[in-house]
Write a structure and sequence with these properties.
The chain is an alpha+beta fold and about 325 residues long. It has 2 domains: about 1-220, Beta Barrel (Thrombin, subunit H); about 225-320, PDZ domain (Pdz3 Domain), CATH 2.30.42. It has helices spanning about 15-30, 65-70, 205-215, 235-240, 260-265, 285-290; strands at about 35-45, 50-55, 60-65, 70-80, 85-95, 100-105, 125-130, 135-150, 155-165, 175-180, 185-190, 200-205, 225, 225-235, 250-255, 270-275, 280, 300-305, 310-315, 315-320.
Length: about 325
């Protein structure tokens, strides 16, 4: 049975809808804001910065953006109840722009990570954080789009980004994007400065995966082969001759000395097509294949050298930790 909003004492139905929206936003904000913190950062030979974050457990683990805390010398967290606590960096991952901190406190208000695969465009999205240093600021809008990709500071693409029109400003970074139940659907991360109402959050499912590994290992292990790549089109005659379904590949524009690619015999000018059976039509596709489980494991790289199709064995190594 569908329940309709019925005006009371002559109140227009539109006003009732606005009241319902207001109650949904204020209720979610009230539920979420005790877990949201303001972060102040002191860096090495760099000016201090600030951002937002939120607790994900009652024993002091909190989530924020990597770009807020990467390279920090000192971290201070300001809680909603007025407390100021020192925080330790447990781990950060520039490739997904996520980081985990911890403070020494117990019984903290914390937020749960919702299944971002269940989020739909048009749903209400509420951002909480410290834009421009104004703590516990709330903005609301809708989920404008799903499955976006955003280039991170490391150069890799971050996938499954949520687009929202909830207003974000510098200082919102690392704060939660929540639904009307106060559950986290994303971690606010970026804005497009010339645009109006185009803001982005890292999906909560990505955050859940990263958090587990950062708490366990302090970092995300990835592999590399030592290629500076560029996406290029394939010559049609060559692609047809070798029965290649793809139209593009990854040009080897540079090689790191003594890297896995160099040891495997790749040369500048080769065009990488596959890693094992996974097609690599673009640099980002190659990056996605270089996961932690490939470290030290033999693989076959398929590539073009001129018009000749070649296959060489290659052993990816662990990507060094970025300082």
């Amino acid at each position: 049975m569908t329940t309709l909003l019925t005006p009371v004492s002559g109140e227009p139905a539109a006003d009732l809808l606005l009241d319902a929206y207001s109650l949904a936003v204020s209720g979610a904000a009230a539920a979420a804001h005790p877990a949201v913190v303001h972060i102040e950062v002191g860096g090495n030979n760099t000016p201090g910065g600030s951002g937002s974050g939120f607790f994900i457990s009652p024993d002091g683990y909190l989530l924020t953006n990597s770009h807020v805390v990467h390279g920090a010398r000192e971290l201070r967290v300001f809680l909603a109840d007025g407390r100021k606590l020192a925080a330790d960096l447990i781990g950060d991952d520039p490739d997904t722009d996520l980081a985990v901190l911890r403070v020494s406190a117990d019984d903290l208000s914390h937020l749960s990570l919702f299944d971002s695969d269940a989020v739909r465009p048009g749903e209400i999205a509420i951002a909480i954080g410290s834009p421009m240093g104004f703590q516990q600021t709330i903005t609301a809008g809708i989920v404008s789009g799903l499955g976006r990709s955003l280039r991170g500071a490391s150069g890799r693409l971050i996938d499954n980004i949520i687009q929202t029109d909830a207003a974000l400003n510098p200082g919102n970074s690392g704060g939660p994007l929540v639904n009307t139940h106060g559950q986290v659907i994303g971690v606010n991360t970026a804005i497009i400065r010339p645009a109006q109402g185009i803001c982005f959050a890292i999906a909560s499912n990505t955050a859940r995966w990263v958090v587990g590994l950062l708490i366990k290992d302090g970092r995300i292990r990835r592999s590399f082969i030592g290629v500076a790549g560029q996406t290029v089109p394939l010559i049609r005659k060559v692609a047809r001759y070798h029965h290649l379904a793809q139209e593009t590949g990854v040009l080897v524009a540079g090689l790191e000395p003594d890297s896995p690619a160099a040891r495997a015999g790749l040369l500048e000018g080769d065009i990488v097509l596959k890693l094992d059976d996974a097609v690599t039509p673009a640099v980002d596709a190659l990056h996605k294949q270089l996961t932690g489980d490939r470290i030290g494991e033999r693989a076959i790289v398929t590539f073009l050298r001129g018009v000749e199709l070649r296959r060489h064995a290659i052993i990816p190594l662990e990507m060094p930790v970025r300082s």
